[in-house]
Amino acid sequence: MHRLRPFSSFFWTLSFLLLSFNSAHAGWYQIKNYEGMIRNRLVHVSLQTFGKLNGKADTHVVGTYYYDTHRIPIKLDGNLLPDGNMALCESDLRPGEPQTNEVIKRRCVFSLLASSNNLTGSWKSGSTSFDVQLRQIAELDNNDEERIEGRVEIPMWYHTGKAMFVGVYGKIDVCEKIVMSELKIVSIFDGTVLGNMPLTEPAEEANPNDLLCEAGVLMTEIYSNVEFGDSLHSVLIHYGGGKMGYDAIKQLGRNAY
User: Fold this and answer.
1) What does 108-174 look like in DSSP terms, one character per residue?
2) First to last CA, the chain
3) Which residues of the chain register pLDDT less than 50?
């Protein structure tokens, strides 16, 4: 079950409109997904860089990562440094509340260097330091000509006390661009897939041309395209289309909250 409403957040709408003047497509989704180790713990990391925003070079990096033993997404943000290194900070996010991006603690702990399809470096907090070894497993780029490699699964920033939400992005037959084709609901405890929402079918009350190929491509930071719904029993998914996009409220099963 779901319902639609026009996207109403002034801040993100303004951001979307300003950026849209510079590209026929979204043009800000440059994503690389990695898996590897922090010390001896398996992790999955997703990072977004922007290339250019409003015609200017942008060194900002955002992302998310989680440990496979405890699948709670941790928000990342930072910058690409002139020497090619990447400095990233991590933040805890509150689950199950409308303020899905509220920072509880912010720790600037990652120092990474990209080489070929790898990221290497360190995670350091105080006197504690761990080696980081990551290899690229998937990539999405729509900054110029759209390109996708591998299976691109985006761990969203929002999560509940029981589940994380993973957007599966790709080019489907009926679409001419990359969209979120489905949303996986994954147990944070053991990785079990609790549910799967297909997102490429338009709602009956919406214009099919608006929503069929627009799921998950509205928000500038791709990890914000799924957020808290109107209750713990639902999620809000951002769609493009129209002048300002749409919010779609979709109901969750009981095992997701």
Assistant:
1) EEEEEEEETTEEEEEEEETTEEEEEEEEEEEEEE-SSS-EEES-EEEEEEEE-SSEEEEEEEE--TT
2) 16
3) 1-3, 8-26, 99-100
Domain parsing of the chain, residue ranges:
2-256
Q: Locate all alpha helices (DSSP H) within the chain, ordered by sequence.
A: 10-20, 208-211
pLDDT in tens, 228-242: 888 878 999 998 876
* Residues 6 or more apart whose Cβ sits within 8 Å of residue 158: 93, 95, 100, 165, 226, 227, 228, 235
- For 183-236, how does the pLDDT look when each residue is reduced to its tens digit (9 = 90+)? 999 999 999 999 999 887 665 555 555 567 889 989 989 999 999 888 878 999
Radius of gyration of the chain (CA): 18
Strand partners, 186: 164, 193
Q: Beginning with the edge strand found earlier in the chain, give each strand of the sheet holding 234-239 in spatial order.
A: 2-6, 246-251, 234-239, 226-228
